[in-house]
């Protein structure tokens, strides 16, 4: 219930935060060489993200105990207060008090360089998570909300956002088993806590390297991997390695089944299924998809099957083209295997369009890209990005940058912490974390949203700034789309702020930003050679965009396979066969390349944790984003009226409005009647 993922609705008296003299141009914040060193821990310092308690790992216990005490007070308050709009406000404050610890800890437990901080954050996550599940089955708390929603006169008096938030809180009670007897409610809480623990353990296991005796590898390829005594350590698929044997070895070793990880996955899927059945759903997928755009697993599978059918012929042509390239370079071993497409499709693109990344990187310095983002947001939305010096102890690594997001008339909107650079023990993933959600406080002030963007970019050097490949630049735009959704979704309630919305809608703003990243009119504004100042030639941008169409069907077919696998894992239980057998059969049905014996890719499928039964969201959001681009920005990517409309009608609502209403009313043509037409349009948009 309580940690879920209209501007005009806020009171006129909301105070505007003015421009600060502490702010500097955003490009300058990223041209200073990041050192990558741990912070100086001597002397007095503040806490992480400005939270005083978090100046030391022990502060997590203080913060969680403080949150739990406040929770008890708010529960007593809402249970003894007559129902009214204030009921929803108290619920949201209750949610906020827990999320402000849980969300922050969820980031720190994987990203902080110090083990003590990570362990303390992990414990805080578990403690707060357990409390959330207990509250979700608290009958007295449920009844306080039920009294409000059962009073038609009171419900009719609520504004649409307040009513939706009340219904969302009620929905959280219902999917947690509030209707069950005491013994079954306790069972539901125990299952939820078990799922939290299994999810955390499985997620960690997806990143663990595998080792093998170095004598088992041909001597000529050993130097491609880390050596540890008599063993070789394999920590990734090495998908871009030119040597076929290196890619094959990495694939077979990294994906070799780990018995402990396999058991964790099986227990996770089984526990999710037990929980779903306990609270009244036929499968976990049915439970997870309530309230999404898709709404049901049947709709998702229909979407995936239609998309797969439309892609099928083009995918086969892509595979033939990739096979031809492999045969050209390696005629002795031309069978196409799963470790081949990323490398050979890259070669085809480079050969046809001359898009060697080294030709592009000098035009994409990180500082220039950040200035480009700020310029784009300013022209579209009246929003600018500025660097701000963090206080001592506020960040976890010296190379983290703090950005203030400022609107030309509304003032300061929130903060983005940019954890962009590689360092030891940092997860190799690009992602967005909500640290604090925005909400209207009782005093009329607005609680500013705070987020972290995490990338893995190379460090700059004394003579060379951080230079991005085209793919890195696109990823930067993608993640900044999430951040701006968080900054601009200024809802009254933090429960529905920004990206706290259905997963298959949350990816729309980020994927939409990829369209801007691939439009010459946008790229031309900031892509300058870091030494000469020369603009990136238009023909280079055109070649890059055209190259992305090469093997695009095969790339998308792979995503369809992943999404279908996710649905099957979270479908009817007991599963008809092992997770590995299901992987093999689904790969043959939805992808086409052969399964490799003694591999278990599903044990590296980290999205099964955060996107369980919802991996399809990337594909469906891409379809919606394509429609938004065509409707609003294709003609003019800097159209201010279109930008304001996009903010007003989509971003500003966060999760405070049904996503399907926004999609139907503002994006899909009025001619597209009914779900069948909508999903046909989605498939056509993607496959085309």
From TrEMBL:
Alphabetical list of InterPro entries matching this protein: M3A_MIP (IPR033851), MetalloPept_cat_dom_sf (IPR024079), Neurolysin/TOP_dom2 (IPR024077), Pept_M3A_M3B (IPR045090), Pept_M3A_M3B_dom (IPR001567)
Superkingdom field: Eukaryota
Annotated cofactor note: Binds 1 zinc ion.
Stored SUPFAM superfamilies: Metalloproteases ('zincins'), catalytic domain
Keyword field: Hydrolase, Metal-binding, Metalloprotease, Mitochondrion, Protease, Transit peptide, Zinc
CDD domains: M3A_MIP (cd06457)
Co-factor(s): Zn(2+)
Peptidase M3A/M3B catalytic domain boundaries: 239-665
Family note: Belongs to the peptidase M3 family.
Protein name: Mitochondrial intermediate peptidase isoform X2
Taxonomic source organism: Odocoileus virginianus
Gene: MIPEP
């Amino acid at each position: 219930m309580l940690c879920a993922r209209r501007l005009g609705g806020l009171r006129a008296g909301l105070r505007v935060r003015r421009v600060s003299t502490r702010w500097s141009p955003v490009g300058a914040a990223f041209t200073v060489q990041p050192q990558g060193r741990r912070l100086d821990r001597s002397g007095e310092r503040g806490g992480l993200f400005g939270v005083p308690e978090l100046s030391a790992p022990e502060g997590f216990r203080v913060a969680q105990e403080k949150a739990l005490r406040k929770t008890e007070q708010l529960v007593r308050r809402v249970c003894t207060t007559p129902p009214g709009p204030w009921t929803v406000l108290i619920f949201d404050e209750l949610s906020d008090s827990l999320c402000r610890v849980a969300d922050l800890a969820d980031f720190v437990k994987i990203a902080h360089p110090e083990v003590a901080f990570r362990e303390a954050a992990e414990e805080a996550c578990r403690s707060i998570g357990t409390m959330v599940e207990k509250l979700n089955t608290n009958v007295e708390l449920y009844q306080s909300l039920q009294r409000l929603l059962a009073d038609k006169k009171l419900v009719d008096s609520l504004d649409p956002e307040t009513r939706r938030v009340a219904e969302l809180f009620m929905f959280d009670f219902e999917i947690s088993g509030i209707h069950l007897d005491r013994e079954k409610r306790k069972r539901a809480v125990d299952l939820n806590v078990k799922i939290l623990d299994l999810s955390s353990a499985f997620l960690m296991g997806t990143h663990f390297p595998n080792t093998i005796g170095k004598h088992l590898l041909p001597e000529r390829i050993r130097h491609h991997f880390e050596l540890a005594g008599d063993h070789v350590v394999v920590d990734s698929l090495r998908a871009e390695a030119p040597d076929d044997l290196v890619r094959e070895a990495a694939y077979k070793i990294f994906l070799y089944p780990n018995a402990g990880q396999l058991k964790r996955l099986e227990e996770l899927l089984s526990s999710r299924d037990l929980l779903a059945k306990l609270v009244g759903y036929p499968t976990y997928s049915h439970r997870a998809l309530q309230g999404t755009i898709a709404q049901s697993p049947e709709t998702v599978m229909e979407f995936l099957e239609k998309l797969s059918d439309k892609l099928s012929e083009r995918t086969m042509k892509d595979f033939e083209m990739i096979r031809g390239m492999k045969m050209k370079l390696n005629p002795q071993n031309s069978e196409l295997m799963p470790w081949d497409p990323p490398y050979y499709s890259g070669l085809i693109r480079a050969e046809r369009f001359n898009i060697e990344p080294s030709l592009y990187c000098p035009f994409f310095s990180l500082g220039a890209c950040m200035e480009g983002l700020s310029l784009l947001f300013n022209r579209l939305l009246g929003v600018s990005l500025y660097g701000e010096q963090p206080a001592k102890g506020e960040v976890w690594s010296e190379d983290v940058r703090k950005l203030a997001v400022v609107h030309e008339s509304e003032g300061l909107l929130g903060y983005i912490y940019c954890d962009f650079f590689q360092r030891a023990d940092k997860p190799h993933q690009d992602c967005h974390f909500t640290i604090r959600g925005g909400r209207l406080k009782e005093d009329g002030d607005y609680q500013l949203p705070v987020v972290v963007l995490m990338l893995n970019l190379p460090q700059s050097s004394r003579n060379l700034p951080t230079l991005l490949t085209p793919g890195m630049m696109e990823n930067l735009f993608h993640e900044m789309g999430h951040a701006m959704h968080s900054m601009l979704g200024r809802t009254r309630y933090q429960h529905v702020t920004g990206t706290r919305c259905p997963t298959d809608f949350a990816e729309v703003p980020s994927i939409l930003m990829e369209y801007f990243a691939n439009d010459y009119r946008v790229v031309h504004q900031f892509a300058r050679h870091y030494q000469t100042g020369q603009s990136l030639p238009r023909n280079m941008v055109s070649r890059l965009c055209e190259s992305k169409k090469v093997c695009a069907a095969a790339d998308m077919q792979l995503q369809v396979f992943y999404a279908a696998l996710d649905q099957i894992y979270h479908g009817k239980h007991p599963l008809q066969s092992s997770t590995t057998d299901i992987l093999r059969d689904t790969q043959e049905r939805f992808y086409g390349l052969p399964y490799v014996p003694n591999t278990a890719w599903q044990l590296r499928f980290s999205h099964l944790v955060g996107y369980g039964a919802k991996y399809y969201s990337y594909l469906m959001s891409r379809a919606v984003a394509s429609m938004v681009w065509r409707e609003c920005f294709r003609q003019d990517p800097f159209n201010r009226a279109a930008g304001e409309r996009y903010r007003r009608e989509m971003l500003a609502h966060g999760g405070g409005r049904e996503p399907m209403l926004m999609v139907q009313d503002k994006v899909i043509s009025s001619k597209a009647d009914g779900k069948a037409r909508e999903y046909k349009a989605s498939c056509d948009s993607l496959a085309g």
